[in-house]
């Protein structure tokens, strides 16, 4: 699993980084994002769910984590 700590970055940078990962991801690959920006925290899970990928959102007192599991391409 690739983990990207993007807590120091605001949208759209975290979304762009996650889209770049998706271009090379294979089915079952996982990406974990650590996010602080409220826009990213809201938009990234919504975007990847809309594309049909599994998304797990976890938050504790220190960090907001989004774990994306790539689904197979339908092409």
Give the percentage of residues in beta strands: 25-35%
Which overall shape is indicated by the principal axes computed on the Cα atoms? globular
H/E order of the elements? EHEHEE
Give the total of beta strands: 4
Classified by CATH, the class is: Alpha Beta
Distinct helical segment count: 2
* Uncertain stretches of 5 or more adjacent residues: none
Helix content: 25-40%
| CATH level-four homologous superfamily name | TusA-like domain
CATH topology: Translation Initiation Factor IF3
**Strand order, largest beta sheet:** 1-2-4-3
InterPro entries: TusA-like, TusA-like_sf
Pfam family, one: TusA
Domain UPF0033: 4-69
Family: Belongs to the sulfur carrier protein TusA family.
Description:
With 75 residues, the chain is of the alpha+beta class. It has one domain: 2-Layer Sandwich (Translation Initiation Factor IF3). It is 33% helix and 29% strand. The longest helix has 13 residues. The protein is globular and about 35 Å long. The termini are far apart.
């Amino acid at each position: 699993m690739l983990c990207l700590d993007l807590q120091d970055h605001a949208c759209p940078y975290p979304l762009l980084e996650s889209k770049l990962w998706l271009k090379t991801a294979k089915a079952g690959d996982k990406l974990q994002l650590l996010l602080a920006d409220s826009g990213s925290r809201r938009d990234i899970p919504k975007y990847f769910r809309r594309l049909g990928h599994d998304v797990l959102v976890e938050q504790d007192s220190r960090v907001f984590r989004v774990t994306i599991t790539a689904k197979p391409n339908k092409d």
